[in-house]
Design brief:
Elements lengths: L36 H26 L14 E4 L5 E5 L14 H11 L11 H13 L10 H10 L6 H17 L2 H11 L9 H9 L8 H10 L3 H4 L5 H17 L5 H6 L18 H13 L7 E4 L4 H12 L7 E8 L4 E5 L24 H10 L7 E4 L18 E4 H6 L3 H11 L1 H10 L22 H13 L16 H7 L6 H16 L13 E6 L5 E8 L2 E8 L14 H13 L32 E5 L2 E6 L2 E8 L2 E8 L4 E6 L8
Parallel strand pairs: 1-3
Antiparallel strand pairs: 1-2, 4-5, 4-10, 6-7, 8-9, 9-10, 11-12, 12-13, 13-14, 14-15
Helix pairs in contact: 1-5, 2-8, 2-10, 4-5, 4-6, 8-10, 13-21, 14-16, 14-17
Length: 683
């Protein structure tokens, strides 16, 4: 143990008891060179390259490459009536895409010379073109080419918005690289030529060639190709049908560019003649119809973007549409507007009028105007009552409401005491509707309205809702009555025929319906409202059903009803929601309805002397409209005798130098004209 420790020869550096920090390293320290700008530059470039690859990969996964094949504007769609009559046309003129390999050499050269001379040598971005465009912007000089390549232009028109910003330009370049990676040069050029705009609502080289020269692009002459190539820079400004001089100047620039690129000699360019236009336009169709405005978005939803022009047959009945327009035009509306919707019980719309004049006002009052439905809304109150177990002979109080903050009145302050639900519906009692609404609950009434297709919103617990204080479009209300007519709801109005559900689909997701008891009882009351109540002016000699509606202060007047499988709604009102004088749901709207239905259903209108009118106590009681005509009124105006009765108007006096008497009915139609004899008493 006396031996020396550590052993000889190990030295202090090998002493295991020493800490590592106490051991001096005998090896020289490694000196790292300083990090230069080049060191940082290489890493930034590498990081940028990796980021670029990541972005390309992200584009490859997320960006729809097929979008560059689609037309950049909605293709042309022609709407046809059910009998094949064209009724509207909308969208761009497009044709099938072109294939570059099948085009003549001079067609391709014309576009390359003026748009992207180095197209086949760059990778989507042309640094020389960018530098030239930048210099032109700085110096104010003008040039024949811009800074964007054909690939960039395809990226812009297919994937990007037309905004001008640095961010969009960077995205355009990135997509251009991506297109160059995934497509061949000929594919890029072909897609560009198939989507470019050439003016006159024409998109794509094939459509432009047919439009301006009536020939396929594979057969274009050099001078024709040169003219078309010049249009793409500013097609709206250079369209030769509107600006031949501008198009010719632009074509001269293309010829010069082809000479500079070596595609033509100067002698060849000078020898080219001026092209002659041979414009073939499609037959024009008057597109200004309310039905077409409503149907076209549905047509777009049914079709995919393609280069094919489509013809789609709608549900519109051309005969009924003409009848609707004719009847509305002669209705004597004054300054008031009108809307009419006719549909089948399955929702197929066969006629639509959205106003007196589409050219003057394209606003569609049948589909866009949300107005108060008035007493037509009482349909949902009575349905809720029947669903709750009440019967048409159940009683309701038709006496004045004297308590609470809401105290509606009946028209002319006419009250009948305790009456049946059927009588209250026939006479459209306001106070009975409010009491019934409070008895069954607002939730059940709103449920009836929404399940039949009304979108609301509706105020819970508001008793004025029973009288139609909410809002709905005429299309919604007509569809709701269609649901009752066919006892299958909801009914979705549509402009194109749909395939009927198979039995399995019907079982899984079929329409809802009322019990036979509720449906029959509601139909009986709607029939009685026309036979004995407020809707008598709409009475036909076949079974028809309906309800009148007049909102507060005569701001809206409606009649909605059905006969067979045809459901028709008529609305009259002022666009500024101001009151109307003397127009109520049981008056002019009911008469328009009757006249239209008479033409729609042959033999529905009987040849009677005068149109039926409601007795004074049975007028639509939505507003208080003042004293009503009872008995007759006689008088003299300017030497002419006038007699007014509930059945019509008789005027007697000298007409054209001869004493005659003319009688017109409640529709304004002449029913009698006779010569007065000396013994005839004054009329």
């Amino acid at each position: 143990m006396d031996a020396a420790w550590p052993p000889q020869g190990l030295g202090e550096a090998r002493n295991p008891w020493l800490e590592p920090a106490d051991i001096a390293s005998s090896e020289p320290a490694i000196v790292k060179p300083p990090r230069t700008h080049w060191w940082w530059g290489k890493r930034v470039i590498a990081a940028g390259f990796v980021l670029f690859l990541i972005l390309l990969a992200w584009l490859a996964i997320t960006a729809p490459l097929s979008k560059s094949l689609q037309p950049i504007a909605p293709p042309e769609i022609t709407l046809l009536a059910a009998d094949g009559t064209p009724i509207a046309r909308s969208g761009a003129v497009v044709e099938e895409p072109v294939v570059v390999e099948r085009l003549p050499e001079h067609v391709v050269q014309a576009f390359l010379a003026i748009e992207d001379r180095r197209f086949y040598s760059h990778w989507g971005i042309d640094p020389r073109g960018l530098a030239r465009a930048l210099w032109a912007n700085v110096s104010g000089a003008s040039g024949m080419q811009g800074g964007s390549t054909i690939t960039q232009q395809l990226a812009k028109i297919s994937f990007l918005t037309p905004e001008r910003s640095l961010t969009r330009k960077l995205r355009e370049m990135l997509i251009a690289f991506w297109l160059e990676t995934w497509l061949t040069k000929d594919e890029i050029l072909g897609r560009y030529l198939s989507n470019a705009y050439f003016g006159d609502n024409v998109y794509g080289l094939r459509a432009a060639s047919l439009h301006y020269f009536y020939r396929q692009p594979e057969k274009l002459k050099p001078e024709q190709a040169i003219l078309l190539a010049g249009l793409v820079q500013a097609p709206s400004r250079f369209a030769p049908t509107r600006n031949w001089e501008g198009a010719s100047r632009r074509a001269a620039m293309v010829r010069t560019a082809m000479v500079n690129a070596g595609y033509l000699t100067q002698q060849q360019a000078d020898a080219l003649p001026q092209p002659r236009l041979d414009v073939h336009e499609r037959p024009r169709i008057a597109n200004g119809t309310y039905f077409a405005d409503w149907a076209m978005p549905q047509a777009r939803a049914l079709t995919e973007m393609s280069h094919s022009r489509l013809e789609l047959t709608t549900t519109l009945d051309a005969r009924l549409q003409r009848a609707a327009e004719r009847i509305v035009a002669r209705a004597g509306l004054g300054k008031a507007q009108v809307a009419l919707v006719a549909m089948r019980t399955n929702g197929e719309v066969v006629a639509m009028v959205g106003g007196k004049d589409h050219a003057a006002s394209p606003f569609n009052r049948a589909t866009q105007a949300r107005r108060q439905p008035g007493s037509t809304f009482k349909l949902f109150v009575w349905l809720a009552a029947l669903e709750a177990g009440m019967e048409p002979n159940s009683v309701v109080d038709d006496s004045p409401i004297t308590t609470g903050s809401y105290r509606p009145r009946n028209a002319g302050d006419r009250y009948r005491g305790v009456i049946s639900l059927e009588e209250a519906f026939i006479h459209s009692s306001n106070v009975a509707a409010v009491r019934l609404f409070q008895q069954v609950g607002s939730e059940k009434v709103i449920k009836q309205a929404t399940q039949l297709g009304l979108k609301g919103p509706f105020a819970q617990g508001d008793p004025s809702l029973a009288l139609g204080s909410g809002s709905a479009t005429l299309l919604e209300m007509t569809a709701a009555f269609a649901g009752v007519a066919g006892n299958a709801w909801p009914v979705e109005p549509h402009a194109f025929q749909r395939e009927e559900q198979g039995w399995f689909d019907w079982l899984v997701d079929g329409p809802d319906s009322y019990s036979s008891r509720v449906h029959e009882q509601m139909q009986d009351m709607l029939r009685a409202a026309v036979n004995r109540g407020t809707g008598r002016a709409a009475s036909l000699n076949i079974a028809n059903f309906g309800k009148t509606g007049t909102s507060q202060d005569n701001r809206d007047a409606l009649f909605i009803g059905y006969a067979g499988d045809l459901v028709v709604g008529v609305w009259i009102g002022n666009d500024d929601n101001s009151p109307m004088q003397g127009i109520r749901g049981g008056g002019l709207p009911a008469r328009i309805w009757r006249q239209f239905m008479g033409e729609a259903v042959r033999g529905a209108v009987p040849p009677r002397r005068a149109a039926p009118v409601a007795p004074p106590e049975e007028v639509d009681p939505d507003p208080v409209i003042g004293p009503l005509l009872e008995g007759e009124i006689t008088g003299e105006i300017g030497g002419t005798n006038v007699r007014v009765t509930p059945e019509g108007l008789t005027i007697s006096g000298n007409v054209g130098g001869a004493p005659v008497a003319v009688t017109v009915d409640g529709n304004g139609a002449q029913v009698e004209r006779r010569r007065l004899e000396p013994a005839d008493p004054p009329q």
